[in-house]
Design a protein that fits this description.
This protein is mainly α. It has one domain: Farnesyl Diphosphate Synthase, CATH 1.10.600. Helix 3 packs across helix 6 and helix 7 runs antiparallel to helix 9. InterPro entries: Amorph_synthase, Isoprenoid_synthase_dom_sf. It holds the Pfam family Terpene_syn_C_2. This is Sesquiterpene cyclase.
Length: 335
């Protein structure tokens, strides 16, 4: 995250061109992927409510309120506009589950990282060993795992479980970082953010939406692996821009914009502008690599990468309007 004094000064000038942070982001973020929305969004939203209620996750009024202003089915619809209704429902359920799980882990981990261990170990045991759940969160995860196995091929389901376990492990890293915030530099922040992004578990579902399963040579191609990393980073860093105000007020550490602010000791609008430039370079690299490898890909491979691009696009359009990040519109863009 090397940034020159000239870049910081230029970012400060850019920060005066918008009324609020959302306008600042809109004016500077490079978004080559147009807005799309799945026509089954309303059905998925109703399905999420039923699924969360079935496993008792919205019995807590605070969780129910969080889901209402987070709108997981809307995020799924923006990310996966071409998916059939059945697969979209799995995506929407998983997004909802991860929001509940992430918020619970953050709350528990702030008190002590060690308190997270039973919660995380239960998830790993379910995902890795097929162990029976002992909590409502575990029961929901076990059911989600069942849905994935029923819809995906064995290899796709295995990739889903692997990526999901990495996300679970990442939450412990985040809790440790929050407890020792003075030791978290920008590079470490980005590393942890990539672990807790929770985006890559959805890529096997993008693959499942294609006519054919990708060959091992195609899915493990070095360029394909790089595209996966670039798209996941861009997809999660974009909401970081819109959530920076919320995270700053809550004392959050693992956020790209806040990492820039800590590193350069600048205002939040300047930090957001610097973060946008980093995201823009990531999206442009994704575009360039996709253009290079696309002639070599099968139709399913093309669809798979389009699914990755969908997460970049969807996270942007969802973040702009979701009530969860409404503070962005109230935050001034000036210095």
């Amino acid at each position: 995250m090397s940034t020159t004094h000239e870049e910081i000064a230029l970012a400060a000038q850019d920060g005066t061109q918008a009324v609020n942070l959302r306008e600042l982001i809109d004016a500077n973020l490079y978004m080559p992927f147009p807005f799309e929305r799945n026509p089954h969004a309303s059905q998925a939203s109703a399905g999420v409510d039923t699924w969360l209620s079935t496993w008792g996750l919205t019995d807590d009024p605070a969780v129910a309120a969080m889901i209402s202003y987070t709108r997981p089915a809307e995020l799924a619809a923006c990310n996966s506009p071409a998916m059939d209704s059945g697969l979209l429902q799995i995506v929407a359920n998983q997004i909802a589950y991860q929001f509940v799980f992430d918020d619970r882990a953050e709350d528990v981990g702030r008190r002590s990282p060690g308190r997270l261990l039973p919660m995380l170990c239960e998830s790993v045991a379910i995902l890795r060993d097929g162990q029976p759940p002992a909590t409502p969160l575990g029961a929901a995860l076990a059911d989600l795992h069942r849905q994935v196995r029923e819809r995906c091929t064995p290899d796709q389901a295995a990739r889903w479980a692997w990526n999901s376990r990495e996300y679970v492990h990442g939450l412990l890293y985040e809790a440790v970082a929050q407890a020792h915030s003075d030791q978290v530099g920008s590079g470490l922040c980005r590393s942890i953010r990539s672990l807790i992004a929770g985006v890559e578990p959805f890529y096997p579902l993008c693959e499942a939406a294609q006519p054919c399963e990708l060959t091992p040579e195609e899915i493990h191609h070095p360029v394909m692996r790089r595209l996966s990393r670039l798209s996941a980073d861009a997809a999660v860093w974009i909401p970081d821009l819109f959530s920076a105000v919320k995270e700053q007020r809550a004392g959050g550490m693992i956020n790209l914009a806040l990492a820039y602010q800590r590193t350069h000791r600048c205002s939040l609008p300047v930090a957001v502008t610097l973060a946008v430039r980093h995201i823009n370079s990531t999206i442009r690299e994704f575009e360039e690599l996709y253009g290079e490898i696309r002639p070599e890909l099968s139709p399913s491979g093309v669809g798979y990468v389009e699914g990755m691009a969908g997460w970049i696009r969807g996270c942007y359009f969802w973040s702009r309007t979701v009530p969860r990040y409404a503070d962005t519109m109230a935050a001034p863009a000036g210095l």
